């Protein structure tokens, strides 16, 4: 995907997590088609679990940190109004939290994204927004929001296009 | 056979049989089977004949490329009518779909170069104005400011003009909506190419240039089976994949998730969800071709 960070594996449990949402496409047998998470959420190598460093709650004051420079430098997600602890949970750094305070694991970050981007969230749940691979009539693999959009800088980054086709005059003998 | 046939023009029964055997021998010597000389189109074959024809095709392709090739003949799934959706507000013109399609479908690589998907670059100010479209854009990065992109491929029309004009019935629409070509029945007249308003059909002007190491050996008789010189080919929604439940290659390759595919008869399918929720249009609607390929704007 475009957001091509090196990734660490969170383990089989996360990679095979099952998403059961209403409105999912039907399988060949008429029942809801199972949806499987494509890849674990992307992390900078070696950085997860965050509790390796952040054991207890930290200073909740918004400020420039002395660490995580790469994230802070590229942070462009309503940066004027947001900072780390609006999404990352202060008490348990291995999870995120919603605006209600409810904690959600990184594998369910779409719930966090959906708080503001409800229209995209609704489209994503039924397969209109986002990407799926696998079977059109059966088991599908879905991509999390963060598999395509860097949560710290979500605009989709431009790509180098593949080579253009030959012009007819270039195809001569 | 000579004029008159058996019993006519002084041709004895013995001479007739003798000449018939000579034809058979000549056919065998030229690598061509009698059943091909007197053959029938693929869709007229009985179940047994289909099995034999598929086995023969696999044998020939394996010999042609020096590696094992499978030729599948899977038929349409009951209760399925395929529909395709393409989100013009997402497509960034990166041509990953083109690359994936070429890799999957075994078209000639160069001289001639055949690509079933053409990605058009259009001016945002002009909208969908095909007279000012550019398929040959080059850029360091896409999308380029002020432009949007519109991939065009076979629209799998419900009223396909290409099928209507084919003088020999070598192309037809399958019950699941896919318009296919029997490459062994096509006479290369190219009437279908001039009839298609979408430029979706392509002709093998020369022996296809497909290196054996780039071959996709998993083929369908009416799909990505390597083609001979002198026949027309086109997108089949990756018939070799979709008839086994898989998404087309272009859908899985798209990095922005702009491509949607599914069963139009299933209200929960992704394509039906698109049609329920989004602004959808078909290309050149005024021509009455009734495409099963839908463009939409998700935003």
TrEMBL record, chain A:
SUPFAM superfamilies: Multiheme cytochromes (SSF48695). This is Cytochrome c7-like domain-containing protein. It comes from Anaeromyxobacter paludicola. The lineage of its organism: Bacteria, Pseudomonadati, Myxococcota, Myxococcia, Myxococcales.
TrEMBL record, chain B:
SUPFAM superfamilies: 4Fe-4S ferredoxins. Signal peptide: none annotated. Keywords: 4Fe-4S, Iron, Iron-sulfur, Metal-binding. Residues 82-112, 145-176, 177-206 form the 4Fe-4S ferredoxin-type domain. The keyword Iron applies. This is 4Fe-4S ferredoxin-type domain-containing protein.
